[in-house]
Every structure is written in structure tokens, then in C-alpha cells.
Design brief:
Blueprint: H1 3-11, H2 32-48, H3 50-57, E1 62-70, E2 77-87, H4 98-104, H5 111-119, E3 128-140, H6 144-165, E4 170-178, E5 182-183, E6 201-202, H7 207-216, E7 232-239, E8 248-250, H8 264-278
Parallel strand pairs: 3-4, 4-7
Antiparallel strand pairs: 1-2, 2-3, 5-6, 7-8
């Protein structure tokens, strides 16, 4: 599985300057962590699902980025970070694609990751028809207690909208949690750092991370297309202070351990198997 390390390596390089000229590895007002996180999930799904690879090779599927889904019953709309879907109409060759997003997002891949990506079939970015997989990524990097209601509400509305549009679709939540002891937030440092001192927030770890994981466990999950909830939930726990230093993927506690409900690799394997069994006939 490459997704968590791809995300961590990506976040080590700060993003574009904010309105004050500050550059942050994680900025709550930016979606760079969501985009790259979902790209990594799609990468791992392609590697683990033979059916998904076959559909990509046969040009049966397309990719949608920031795709708006509409609940058929309530007409509620929700923009999903990334979806894999059946195409609408003819796909024009030579356009943007899953592989080209690595360059678009400036994702620095290792030699091994580049080689694995090269072995995979590509998926074009094109107008979306029936959605097969819907990915939504959210993060809780600081102020963990305050983040819990927001995190739950935003994620819960995602699976409701996805399955309101299609019960068959796989709704996947990917949550990124910070386990560092301190953090420099772009929100509390909403000023030019060249003129004001950096404000640092202290965390109570591992309690803060465990609090987020406990809140995530309240999200509804489903095992059949008749149920309500997410089909898959994966968590990556990171350790970084948002001050330009290294970003580490936490593999020991409090991160979910192999076999646990939200372990990233377990989620990927389960979702690949669900895709293989649910959509083999398209």
C-alpha cells in the first residue's frame, strides 16, 4: 500500500502562499490533502482490484474530480473529492487522466511508486455517468475536540448523498488524523508570520487522536446495498507540527492496527474485493 506514504511525503512540501504570504504543509482552507489522499486511495484500489484494472483497460470507466452528486430523493447535492464512474458519451483521447494528476498535483513519487504506476492502466478524467466508487477525504489535524462534530456531520452527509444517488455505489471515507504533541494552525496564525510570532497549539496525545477515532466509530457502516452508511472507512494517522519539518506515518498505537475496522490496508483490500464482486458484470 502506497497511499499513506505518498500523502506524508507530499505534505512535507508546503503549499502555495496564503493571503498573508505564509506557506503551510496543511492549511484547513486548502483541499490539497484531500486531493492527494484520494489519489493515493485510487492508486491502491487499482493495484488491488483485478476487475478495476480490467475496466480501466477496456475503457469502461472514467474519473471525476470534485464531482457533484445529487441525492435523487431529496435533491441534496454534495461535491465528492474523487469518483470512479461509467462514462457519459464518447471519451476524447489525450485528455487529463488519473496518471496525469500526479504531475498536476506535483506529487513526488518514489522510483518504486513510479514503476508500479507505470504498470497500471490509466483512467481518463471525463464527464461522469453512473458512479461506482465515491471517495471523500477529511482531516483532523488540530483542535481535535472542536473538530469532532464537523468531521462527523460532513462525512455522514457524504454517504447519504452517494447512496441517495445510487445504492450500488461504494462510498469510501478516508480520514487523516494528526497525532503530534503540538501544531501550528493556519487558523490561529491568520496573520503575516513575518510580523507576528508563531502561535503553537498543544495537544493531549494520545487522547486527542483516540477521541477522533472514537467519533469516527459512530459513523454508520453497511455491508449490503440495502443498508445505510459507508462501505469502507480508512484512517491514516500522521505525526507533524506544520512548521516545515518531516511528516511521519504512525503505524503503532493509537493508529488503527492490522485487522482493525479502520486500518487503511484492510479498507483497501475490502473495497477492492467489493468492487470485484459488485461490478464484475459491467
Amino acid at each position: 500500500m502506497f497511499g499513506p506514504e505518498i500523502l506524508a511525503n507530499y505534505l512535507e512540501t508546503p503549499g502555495d502562499p496564503d493571503k498573508y504570504g505564509n506557506r503551510w504543509q496543511y492549511n484547513s482552507r486548502s483541499d490539497r490533502h484531500s486531493k492527494v489522499g484520494c489519489w493515493g486511495v485510487a492508486f491502491d484500489l487499482l493495484m488491488n482490484s483485478a476487475t478495476l484494472r480490467a475496466h480501466a483497460s477496456a475503457e469502461k470507466i472514467v474519473l471525476g474530480v470534485n464531482h457533484t452528486m445529487r441525492d435523487f430523493q431529496t435533491q441534496r447535492e454534495k461535491a465528492l473529492d474523487l469518483v470512479i464512474a461509467r462514462p457519459v458519451g464518447t471519451v476524447v483521447p489525450g485528455g487529463p487522466s488519473f496518471k496525469s494528476l500526479a504531475s498536476t498535483y506535483a506529487i513526488g513519487l518514489t522510483a518504486t511508486e513510479i514503476a508500479e504506476l507505470g504498470r497500471l492502466p490509466d483512467i481518463p478524467i471525463a464527464p461522469v455517468g453512473a458512479v461506482l466508487v465515491a471517495l471523500e477525504a477529511k482531516a483532523a489535524m488540530t483542535a481535535h475536540t472542536k473538530a469532532k462534530p464537523r468531521l462527523y456531520d460532513e462525512l455522514n452527509s457524504s454517504h447519504l448523498c452517494v447512496h441517495g444517488a445510487s445504492n450500488q455505489a461504494l462510498a469510501i471515507a478516508y480520514i487523516q488524523v494528526n497525532a503530534s504533541d503540538r501544531f501550528a494552525s493556519s487558523v490561529t496564525n491568520n496573520h503575516p508570520l513575518s510580523q507576528y510570532p508563531l502561535r503553537i497549539t498543544d495537544h493531549k496525545q494520545p487522547n486527542d487522536t483516540n477521541g477522533i477515532l472514537n467519533k469516527i466509530s459512530e459513523l454508520p457502516r453497511r455491508t449490503t446495498t440495502n443498508g445505510t452508511g459507508f462501505d469502507g472507512i480508512g484512517v491514516t494517522v500522521l505525526d507533524f507540527d506544520n512548521m516545515g519539518g518531516p511528516v511521519r506515518v504512525v503505524t503503532g498505537p493509537p493508529a488503527p492496527q492490522p485487522g482493525a475496522a479502520f486500518h487503511y490496508a484492510s479498507m483497501i483490500v475490502r473495497m477492492a474485493n467489493e468492487y470485484d464482486s459488485r461490478f464484475h458484470g459491467i
